[in-house]
Every structure is written in structure tokens, then in C-alpha cells.
Amino acid sequence: MSTENQTCANIDEAIAQFALAGTLTEKSPYGNGHINDTFLLIYELPEGEKKQYILQRMNHTIFKNPVQLMENVVNVTEYLRKGILAAGGNPDRETLNVVKTKDGGIYYEDSAHNYWRMFLFIENTVCLEMVENAKDFYDSAAAFGNFQRMLANYPAQTLHETIPNFHNTPSRFLDFKRAVEKDVMGRAKLAEKEIAFALSREGEASALTELLEKGELPLRVTHNDTKLNNILFDADTKKALCVIDLDTVMPGLSLYDYGDSIRFGASTGAEDEKDLSKISLDLSLFEAFTKGFIEGCGGSLTDKEIEMLPMGAKLMTYECGIRFLADFLEGDVYFKIHREGHNLDRARTQFKLVADMEAKWKEMAAIVEKYVSIPNN
Ligand code: ADP
Ligand code: GN1
Ligand code: MG
Questions:
Q1: pLDDT tens-digit map of 43-62
Q2: What is 134-370's CATH number, 3.30.390.10, 3.40.30.10, 3.90.1200.10, 2.10.10.90?
Q3: Ligand 2-lining residues (CB < 6 angstroms)
Q4: pTM, whole model, 2 decimals?
Q5: Is 318 in the pocket of ligand 1 (CB under 6 A)?
Q6: CATH of domain 3-123
């Protein structure tokens, strides 16, 4: 049986574990995530209405302990649910909701040891792959900042670390160097310029982790994967509605969430754009996000965190670049690819963006400077 058939067979086995009303009329691959296998299920109810669900096969090569991961997701979403209710919001739309199996389980392990989970589909939303205007980006910033604020008192010690050292840039650098040294696919010759670029910036890799170790930056509960397509916007109000993809919610630095959003959303081109002349840092988007994030965090960011925002943006972009490049060198074993050289193309955009940030460093610092020591509101 081919892998694809096996996936299909397993998907039906997984679907059968859920007691969902109506008749299944559609099941199709969904979204543009690089990690999990995501499917949209559509059920038609007797009255003709439709009810949709997201079914995901978790990537258990990457997430080594899917059970712990789901414990995190359920605990965090239940915690958020209470906060959303207290604020008068709608928790069915403003946070993910795990659909339990017939046995009351929060996931299902199939006969081939794949792990599946289901979420309520959040209807009438849009998921953006590129920023369309500064207002949307500002809004996403406020939502990610608010997410961090809502989890500020979450008992961080109860969270499992779903991927150890996820944003530990020096550790990512060592992984990258090992990938270059091993060069298992013989691809290093195709990426000499990119490898040299990455190696020459080793000195900066520890800029944030050192401040954390010295106690100059606080450890918080963070999302850690704050790209724009991990947020759903309400299709009617166009407001950022729900932060999704909670697999990496773990203790981290606020700068990780800020930086990862900038690298994805404040770029003038797509993450996998082949024409590098289209890639640069849009300073007005940078400012919109900075303002939104600081406001969304509700005055909780320290002056040091704010001062380090440009470094957060640069290091998260650099780190993502070395991860893409290492994956290219290792044979594309981590990020899903859709064409040959996809991970190398992705690494190139990240490094182009890092170089542009270096060129615009003073402007970035000046923008951020405006927001230091603004009294908490
Ligand atoms: P990955 O970890 O692979 O990125 P995500 O959890 O981000 O997977 O899901 C992939 C995509 O599926 C998202 O970008 C979004 O478009 C869509 N999606 C995920 N969960 C929901 C949901 N509950 N409601 C609507 N769309 C969703
Ligand atoms: C992955 O899961 P997704 O597609 O939202 C990755 C992020 C990277 C991102 C790059 C668990 O995010 O760390 O920044 O791709 N997630 C994981 O696009 O590794
Ligand atoms: Mg995602």
C-alpha cells in the first residue's frame, strides 16, 4: 500500500472515532502549514446546513510526544476560553476548540501509530498568506500581543516543552553547522553563498539567549510560531479573531513572537519568493506591527524587551533562514516542500531580509525608540 493510500485509509479510521452529526460530504487537504497534515471535513446536516471541522494528522516526527502536545493545547485553550468569556468574547470563535473522540479522548492514535486531532472549524474567517495592508498587520500584532498577555499568569511550569530549544538560536546554529559539515545530500556546493552568509553571523546568534541567562529579559508563555497564517481574521469585520497553531506554546521570549511575525509579515515578498529583488523590510509595516504588539501586550513589555525588538526581528529571521538551509542540506526532512530547491529558496529570502534589516538598522531602532517608556495604559 502506498503512503498516500495509507494516509487515506487512516483518515477514514480517524474520522470514524468522532461522533459528528450529519453526513460527510467533503474531506480535502487544507491550508498552507509546513508541519501537520490538515484536512477540512464538511458535514451536511438533515436540514441542509453545513458544519465544518479541521482534522489534523500531527507530525510526530517533529513533535516527538503528541500526547504531551495535546495536553498543552487542551490546557491552554481551556484557560483562554475562561479569559475570553470573562472579557465578554465568544470562545467558540476566539480560540481553538478541541473536538473529543467518542471515547472522550483529545486525540486518536490510529493502527499505523499516526496521531490525529480535531478542531471546530472557525467559520467565516480568512487566513492571510501575505499582509494586504498595514491595518491588518497592526491588528495581527495586537492579537499576538494580547495572546501573550492573556497567558501571562498561566502556570508556565505545567507546559510541556514540545520541541526543546525551539528558538535557541545558538543551538540552531550548531545544528546548521553540523548539517554543513555532514552535507549528506552533497548539496552544500549549491548554497555556498548562503552558507557563508550564515556562518559569518555566528557572533550574533546568542544576543537574546545571553540576556535571558543574565536575567535581563523575562521568560514568558509565548506562542513561538507567530506567522500571519497562524491567525484567522473575521471575514466580516476584518479584525484579527483567533490565534491558531498552538503546538509550540511554551515558555519563551516575547521577542520570539514579535520577531517571527516581522520576518514573515513585514517582508515585501513571500517566504519562498524566487525573485530576491522583491524581498525587503517594509518599514511602515515594521512600525505598524511594533505599535500593535506593544499595545496588545498591554504595557507589560519591559524597556529592555522593547529596545531589543529589532534584534528579535533579525534573529528570528536569521534563525528561520538557517533552519531552512539546514533542511535543504539534510534532504528536506523537516519542512514540507512543493518544488525542488524550495527550502533553499526560503533560506535565500530570509537572508535577503536579514541583510536588509542590517541596512535599515538605524531606522528600525528609531521606530522602536518611539515606544520605549511610554507609560503603561
Ligand atoms: P501547521 O502546523 O501545519 O502550520 P496549522 O494548525 O497552522 O498547521 O493549520 C494549517 C492551516 O489550517 C492554517 O493556516 C489555517 O488556514 C487552517 N486552520 C487550522 N485550524 C483551523 C480552524 N480551527 N478553523 C479554520 N481554519 C483552520
Ligand atoms: C513552521 O507550522 P507552521 O507552518 O506554522 C515552523 C515554524 C517556522 C515556519 C516557517 C513547529 O510553521 O517554526 O517559522 O514553518 N513550525 C515548526 O514558515 O517548526
Ligand atoms: Mg501553521
A1: 999 989 999 999 999 999 99
A2: 3.90.1200.10
A3: 33-35, 225, 227, 230, 245, 247-248, 260, 271, 320
A4: 0.95
A5: no
A6: 3.30.200.20
